[in-house]
Specification:
189 residues, two-stranded parallel sheet, mainly alpha
């Protein structure tokens, strides 16, 4: 949630009032918005729930959002209309830290993007930013495999950003020497 707040603040500084036209949400907040639920409505503090990401309410909301986006239980034409209403105004999706998504978040992003839709017009453009070397949430179910399969899943063209503007040459050389020992890296450089 802190990253989402920071992105909103940075956008406001960069583009002013136009930033209000950009929706910045976590996967859980997006699912809650789609489902139309608030944990406060259920007498549960969101802060308390956020501290326990494994809570059944989060899992339930994510599953419900995926079902809504896929139109489960609806006739195909009704499902398409329902999806269009849910996603009115959405055209692009940017997922940051894609290497840290878990299976439920993957399903939500896939349903949101319309990955399995036959009609390409119903799909949203998906941009994913991530680094297979920085997967730090494996302990909570996140898998670097989702970023490894992104190109095939979405017929995407990968772009590797290998310039580092934050560190000195000595730090970069030491980091490259250390990470170079890792097996199955996506980046050669």
């Amino acid at each position: 949630r802190h990253a989402a707040v920071e992105i909103r603040q940075r956008l406001a500084r960069l583009i002013g009032d136009d930033a209000k036209g950009v929706t910045v949400l976590t996967c859980h907040a997006l699912a809650m918005r789609l489902v139309g639920v608030s944990f406060v409505d259920q007498g549960v503090s969101f802060v308390d729930q956020a501290a326990q990401m494994e809570n059944d309410l989060f899992h339930t909301v994510l599953r419900q959002a995926v079902q809504l986006l896929r139109g489960e239980g609806l006739e195909p034409e009704d499902a398409d209309e329902h999806r269009e209403r849910l996603l009115a105004g959405f055209r692009w999706i940017l997922v940051d830290e894609y290497q840290d998504i878990d299976p439920e978040q993957y399903e939500l992003i896939s349903a949101l993007a319309g990955r399995t839709l036959q009609d390409e017009d119903g799909r949203l453009s998906l941009f994913a930013v991530g680094d297979d070397d920085q997967n730090i949430y494996a302990f909570s179910g996140a898998s670097v495999e989702f970023i490894r399969h992104f190109e095939a899943d979405y017929a995407a063209t990968p772009v590797f950003l290998v310039e580092n503007y934050r560190s000195t040459a000595h730090i970069i050389a030491a980091a490259n020497q250390l990470i170079g020992l890792a097996r199955d890296r996506m980046k050669a450089d």
